[in-house]
Fold each of these.
Amino acid sequence: MKKVITYGTYDLLHEGHINLLRRAKALGDYLIVGVTNDSFDRERGKLNVRNNVMERVERVKATGFVDQIVIEDYIGQKIDDIIKYDVDIFAIGSDWEGKFDYLKEYCKVVYLPRTEGISSTMLRSENETVVNIGVVGCGRIAKRLVAETSKVDAARVSALYDIVPTAAEALAKDKSLVCASFEELVERVDAVYIATPHLAHYDQAKYALEHHRHVLCETPMVLREEQAEELYRIAQANNLVLLEANKTAFCPAFNHLITLIKSGLIGDVVGIDASESKLWGEEKLKRELNPNEAGGSLYEMGSYPLLPILRLLGTEYEDVTLYSRLNDNGVDIYTRGIIRYRNAVASFQLGLGVKTEGNLIISGTKGYAYVPSPWWKTDYFELRYEDQNMNKKYFYKWDEPGLRYELQEFVSCIINKRYNSARMRQKESITMARIMQQFAQRKSVFEL
Ligand code: CTP
């Protein structure tokens, strides 16, 4: 029996795929098809795949040419599969001509003619709902997000506004995208990305939501619990997406870490320690240390360590105690927080003018997770145990600047009418605001 194997994503299964599968089957007696899994596609930069792996498998099966399906989830699997299934022929479309010659050592390699004029990419763009996004606050972070829109098919920056017009002009592909006011920007778009200083977020998000625009708001979204609750209430009542743009929350590697821990790989989580610090000098940290712009280490960076803590231990803590060193302007250059839960405790350290090791450690009853600095751009972590033979290292790719994932989730929530993202839950965002508020009110805050 002659065995043939081929691989693909097979998104929005089309005539080109069907022709290829027919030709591949005709090369032998038994056809194995490797369908890429969702996370492997994301790692390869294919963020826009529409059908999930189960749907894609079902459609490939339904063509009737396939005898066996395998899921492809790592680089190098092709060689393993060819050996494991004793494959005679590897077949693939001619768009890959030459790319798989290295497999000739293991089996025959055949490049089949590709069907002209059709591809999944083409179909995706044909029936794509484009989300027109207006960017308000055209500084450092907005610049990065605008660059990332090229990675997300459905996202288009169609308006920009900044109180300094030249800042908006610098980011605009053409001048017609620059708006004269925030109100004009809201008028022109489906969704607003807010990247202004913290204190402007609440009014701008509220205005945009009240004018029926979806909102992606930089972190910290707001600094008061009732403001966060109010914004989510307005969003909910109007079927709008409101998402806090905490980049770590959407990062695939961070989410994999969370799913491994939730699956019990280190037992019950009993303690979490997370830190982040910047020692850039006062000149460079001017805005970050400005008391009139809600500067300080907790406001500036607090939502990052709070994310793994609230995701793993929940939002129902017993109490939070904060220890801060303030500078002459009353801004915290260092804050250490202790969050007490009934069965666990978490702590974090934040420094803007104090340096500390920026890692994340999650301690459990069976082992612990170690994520080295910069853990908020997770690309590597280890699960460690008493028996060191059980230790395992996990490696990923971090796609600088890492904002494509939040953007993808935002437009996907809008297109699919999902009003609560599992990546950044409303409850978590509200709790972050509650802790910021507690700090502002100096409740259980000890000055050092
Ligand atoms: N294929 C083909 N003819 C087409 C499109 C794809 O023969 N018009 C083949 C590819 O060469 C590959 C298989 O179908 O062997 C699966 O390819 P896949 O990447 O899933 O399909 P594309 O439509 O090319 O997807 P994309 O646009 O996302 O790259």
Amino acid sequence: MALIEGHRAIDAPPGVEIWDIDPYDPDVQRSPSAFYAALRAKGPFVYLSRYGMLACGRYAETREVFSDHSRFVSSRGVGLQDFQLDSPWRPPSIVLEVDPPEHGKARRALMRALSPKAVAEMRDSFQIAADALLDEVIETPEIEAVSALAETFPTTVFPKAMGLLTVDRQVLIDYGSMVFNALGPDNETRRAAMAHAGDIVPRIAAQCERANLAPNGMAMTIYKAADAGDITEGEAGLLVRSLLSAGVDTTVTGIGNALWCLSQNPDQFDALRAEPSLATNAFEETLRYTSPVSAFCRTANADTEVAGVAIPEGAKILCVLGAANLDPGQWENADRFDITRKVAGHLALGAGIHSCVGQNLARAEGQAFLSALARKVARIEPTAEAVWRPNNAMHPLDRLPLRLIPA
Ligand code: OVM
């Protein structure tokens, strides 16, 4: 049995085009739209010969595979490794990398911590922080917006919302990079992210401990579920680890990508300025248009079929959310960034039982940030080309040079 990147290579199913592209090639990752379009054009699935696996990028099949948790499981890993055949770099997440029925208990504990009510209580402080950050940044009109805004805002508000007492912003960002890049093959990008594991992993573990959490933060709500007997103390620690894994790089990327979208589409920024309440939908459209989480895998747990394609047990399927979110069969003027469009149904936050459990919190951050931007900035001008950062599961910016003209 041939293992490739920790999973069993399947043969190409009949009728599926064989494609030798590497979706994890840094050039593809920096500018993925041609890959997305070709993937959709080739059929409901392609066979990635380099990895002995399938990929999908049309909306219907991507949604079907991604949300059918009984046929396409998460417990065998949502990256290239099959956890039945190869051991992951860290103990598996008890919410991301697990199936029902175990999944439900962890998911419910997180849902309570991240409830609409809990998020609503944070909104005013997010808005104050966003307004203050923009007031400060706008003093120096020429900025590199990834570090000045996209990284700064979430790493200011998220640790406070969680109640982290010992915060190191860079450790949070670097750990997120490890978690997402680990989902790809053992390439240069993954190795670079993993190089710092020795320092970062123990520091993240410390940040997850009860003793290092404020009594009134969202993270402590998880430990309260342990006190109530709903989960164990060890499970509480792992769920706080999930919050730190999924809560920082995702929102950093969402906010950076929103700034990129608005800087590239001044008419849309004008529309936002004219109606700051469009901030919520502008953030949502950014999610559709740029898919901060660009692709996760599922694993077929038994022989099955989708769109007439035979999928064997053990097959890894790369679900390219970024391609589905730009499918012209699903979206009118799919490749236009339009902050007024009906954007419901996009797959940027997943679909089904594993859909992003932090989405209320992420949206609250995005909305506060874009609302501040709409009120405090008159114009956003690119001062140099944006540079995208290769990543094995996300589509983040590396550098975004901008000039912000005050309102
Ligand atoms: C986790 C987690 C959850 C969602 C995304 C993610 C790959 C990690 O539970 O650790 O990033």
